[in-house]
Protein: Acyl-CoA thioesterase
Amino acid sequence: MDRSEEVALAASYTEMHEILMPNDTNNLGRALGGSVLHWMDICGAIVGRRFSRRQVVTASMDHVDFRGPIDLGEIVAVEGYVFDTGDTSVDVKVDVFAERPSAGERRETASSFFTFVALDDDESPAPVPALSCETDRERRLRDEALDERRERRRSAPTL
Structure:
């Protein structure tokens, strides 16, 4: 595979679902942050593998914005897609939602940006295809992710 090959954003799109069970909750009956991060990392890795058609490893994760709790028994929806690429890396946006179908509710609870590096058979960094956005929806998702990541990095506190 070389960089002249293109893969559509839609080919990377991934959705995972869990029911928040007691083993993944804190003493308030809400999702443990570590469990949410675990699900986000797995979703991001699946996204990266679908896009690059290679094994991937997590290179970085931007800060995570936890926007609201996920309560015991709610459905956790984790969604991700590639929004940018480097020579051997893919940038992935991952969003987490809590769903309560009985009440018709769905709310965003967390989001972050990950970078994964593709590996060849010797576990060395390997080229990834270029990203193509073939539809207006794909272009909008890419542009929104690029803008959001840029804004988060601009407003992040410095040490």
Summary: The domain at 6-155 is CATH 3.10.129.10 (Thiol Ester Dehydrase; Chain A). The chain has a mean pLDDT of 95. The chain is about 30% helix and 35% strand. Strands lie at 6-8, 14-19, 55-61, 65-66, 75-85, 89-100, 105-119, 130-132.
